[in-house]
Predict the structure.
Amino acid sequence: MLTRRTLLTASLAGAAALGPGLPPRPAHAGTPEQAAAFIEQTGKDLTGVVNGSAAKADKQTQLKSIVDRAVDVDEVARFCLGRYWRTAPPDQQQQYLALFHQVLLKNITGKLGEYQGVTFVVGRSVVRDDSVSVATVVTRPGVAPANVEWVVSNATGAPRIVDVVAEGTSLRLTQRSDYASYLAHNNNSVPALLDAMKQQLGQPG
Amino acid sequence: MRMGAVKNVVLLASGLALAGLGGCATPPPASDPDAVAEFNQANDPLEPTNRVLYEVNTGLDTLVLRPLALGYTWVLPQFVRTGVHNVLNNLDSPVLLANDMLQTKPRRAGDTLMRFVINTTFGLGGIFDVATDWGYPYHDAGFGQTMALWGVPEGPYLFLPILGPGSPRDTSGYGVDVVLDPLTWVGLNNRTVATAGYIRYGVTLLDVRAGLFDSLDKATAQALDPYATERSLYRQHRDSEIEAVRADTRATTPAWFAAPATH
């Protein structure tokens, strides 16, 4: 933990020392301004759908298209499988990607109702390693405002969300430790994980 | 600090449980470096014991705490629960202040002190959190956090019923917070005061539990391994809190104090 922290502080300090306009910016990062504008737009699209008056099924379809457009789902999926991704045969990889996509969408659209009335304000954005972290404050009625950071990468050539950090907890790190622990308790078997994901989706294993 | 209030009741029970279950996790073979790295990163050598206690906690929670907290949110409207939450936060002020000072963070100590003064008076005994609107937002502070800033390592993961996730550092920090709390020492021989103390513990439990419906419950419901998910969430949240304190290097000079001209 200490190493990670030190590294992070060092890289932040480095970024601060370089200041704006100096060249050695990692290839995939894009500028903080681009990332902030991208999050502003994506956030508007999302809140527009969530707070809109469309029927639930229509909202789900609209959310799906926003997620497909704004989130680098394959990259998140690979990250979450961690070391098991490298050793899994291609057919399992493909099956995993497809399932991960569906689970992610189910988790997002399942929360539709709770996010009614949500608003957000975009704050500072900072280059961190090969991505940009955009800070926002998300406010929902009756719930304390939450600090949410959106990690944006340009690895695909266009800005895409690769992580969401809510109040200091990273969605993809949490998901990775969930999968890692499940695999460790199921003989490191990726097919067992795939079955469990199918069950999550309510499909027969 | 919040959960520290219930520490008295629980520590004995969990101590007994620990004595009965001496399970240790078996490290993966050294021939699998990835697995070894994962094992070390999880830093959970007591995992089998922790998992048993996690199950005990889940059982207690399902049978007792969750229904009570659901009843609490069902009976009392949101604004009453917010008031209760604010009062409990305000009662924690002495412990927060002590820890802010032990962390050598004068601006945070100032925030806590101003919050206590403003909310106790204008906030009518802490019911209304006026101070946040006036530029003194709430922050949590506990002795576990303080020890972290002093460089005390966290130690292995520890899951205790009711107290929830922790570590030797943070769980013993709860204990110190209870000792630091002046309310622990007030009216030790007075039945009414003692009863008020237990009511505070009980309401704190309800308040904390009700606050988890939205976050933790959802996260663990979506997880394949809720235990590991909670462990990860706990550690990340803890680290980010500690980082936030460390990064709080606001100057002690107030904004209205004219800085000396620099030529």
Notes: Chain B has one domain: 2-25+42-247. Residues 2-25+42-247 of chain B form one domain. Confidence is low (pLDDT under 50) at residues 3-20 of chain B. Chain B touches chain A through 26 residues (CB under 8 Å).
